[in-house]
Amino acid sequence: MKWQRIPLGILQTNCYLLTNENKECIVFDPGEEGEKLQSIINAQKLKPIAILLTHAHFDHIGAVDMIRDTYHIPVYVHKKEAAWLSDPALNGSERFMMGKAVRQEPADHLIDQESKLSIGSFSFDVFETPGHSPGSISFYVKELNVVFSGDALFQNSVGRTDLPGGNHQQLISSIKNKLFALPDVTMVLSGHGPETIIDHEKRNNPFL
Question: Coiled coil located at which positions (predicted)?
Answer without folding.
Answer: none
